[in-house]
Automatic annotation (TrEMBL):
Name of this protein: ABC transporter related protein
Biological source species: Oleispira antarctica RB-8
Gene Ontology MF terms: ATP binding; ATP hydrolysis activity
Domain (ABC transporter) ranges: 4-226
Keyword set includes Transmembrane helix: no
Shown part of the complete sequence: 2 to 227 of 324
Keywords, sorted A to Z: ATP-binding, Nucleotide-binding, Transport
Length: 226
C-alpha cells in the first residue's frame, strides 16, 4: 500500500481559478518526499485537500489505502499535519495544545501522557509545558505544532513549508528531528520552495508549477541532471 496515492486531482476555487489541473502522485511508505515549486504553484492546495481542509473538485486521494472521502476517519488516523501558520490558542498551555486532539484519535489517558512527554522532550519543550503558547519564541511554536501533529503516532507526517522564515540554527535542528523520525519509519511529505531543503532531506521529489506536476523523480536523479 502506498502512503499517499493521488489520482486526477483537480481543484477549482470558488472564484473560478483552477489551482490544480489533474495531479497524479504516489508516495511510498518510508519515503521522505518533497513537493517543490514557486509560490502559487498549488502545493498548499494539495496539502489542504490531503488533510481534509480544502474540498477537492474531482479526482481521488487515498492515505494508507483509505479513501479520503469514503473512509475519512481511518485516513485521518494515519496523518499528522503541520500547517504553515500557527493556528493554536495563544492563551492555552503548551501541554494542553499537544494533547488537544488526542480524544479525537481515541487514545487512552495513559497513552496520551506517555506520548506527550516523549514528544515534548524530543522537541525540547518539556520545560515549557506549563507556559501559555504566546510566551514561546517563533522556533518553539514551530516545534509545538510538530509535537501536536504527532500525538497519535501517525504513519505519515505532512509539513507545509516547515522552515520558511526560520533561522539557520533552528532549520538544522528541525532537519535533524525530521530525519530521525523518518529513519524510525514515519513517511514524511513536505512542501518547500528551497531546492536545498529537498536536497538535504528528501529521497523523492515532485516539482509542481501552475497546478501541474512537471517533474517527479528521485532527488539523486534530479541533482545529477543539473
Ligand atoms: P472554496 O472554493 O474551496 O470554497 P473559496 O474560494 O470560498 O474556497 O475561498 C476560501 C477562502 O480563501 C476565502 O476566505 C477566500 O477569501 C480565501 N482566498 C481567496 N482567494 C485566495 C487566494 N488567491 N489565495 C489564498 N486565499 C484566498
Ligand atoms: P503554493 O502553496 O504552491 O504557494 P497555493 O496552493 O497556496 O500555492 O495556491 C495555488 C493557487 O491558487 C494560487 O494562484 C493562489 O492564489 C490560488 N488560491 C489559493 N487559495 C485560493 C482560494 N481560496 N481562492 C482562490 N484562489 C486561491
Amino acid at each position: 500500500t502506498a502512503a499517499l496515492s493521488i489520482q486526477g486531482l483537480e481543484k477549482v476555487y470558488g472564484n473560478g481559478f483552477k489551482a490544480l489541473k489533474g495531479i497524479d502522485l504516489t508516495v511510498e511508505q518510508g519515503d521522505f518526499f518533497a513537493l517543490l515549486g514557486p509560490n502559487g504553484a498549488g502545493k498548499s492546495t494539495i496539502l489542504g485537500i490531503v488533510s481534509s481542509l480544502v474540498q477537492k473538485t474531482s479526482g481521488s486521494v487515498s492515505i494508507m489505502g483509505h479513501d479520503l472521502v469514503t473512509d475519512t476517519f481511518a485516513a485521518k488516523q494515519c496523518l499528522g499535519v503541520v500547517p504553515q501558520e500557527f493556528n493554536f490558542n495563544q492563551f492555552e498551555k503548551v501541554y494542553d495544545i499537544v494533547i488537544t486532539q488526542a480524544g479525537y484519535y481515541g487514545l487512552t489517558a495513559k497513552q496520551v501522557a506517555a506520548h506527550a512527554e516523549s514528544l515534548l522532550k524530543a522537541l525540547d519543550l518539556w520545560d515549557k509545558r506549563d507556559e501559555t503558547s504566546r510566551m514561546l519564541s517563533g522556533g518553539m511554536k514551530r516545534r509545538l505544532m510538530i509535537a501536536r501533529a504527532l500525538i497519535h503516532k501517525p504513519q505519515i507526517l505532512i509539513l507545509d513549508e516547515p522552515t520558511a522564515g526560520v533561522d539557520i540554527e533552528l532549520r538544522r535542528s528541525m532537519w535533524e528531528f525530521m530525519k530521525r523520525l523518518n529513519e524510525e519509519g514515519t513517511t514524511i511529505i513536505l512542501t518547500t520552495h528551497y531546492l536545498e531543503e529537498a536536497e538535504q532531506l528528501c529521497k523523492n521529489i515532485a516539482i509542481i508549477n501552475n497546478g501541474e506536476i512537471v517533474t517527479n523523480t528521485s532527488v539523486r536523479e534530479l541533482l545529477s541532471q543539473l
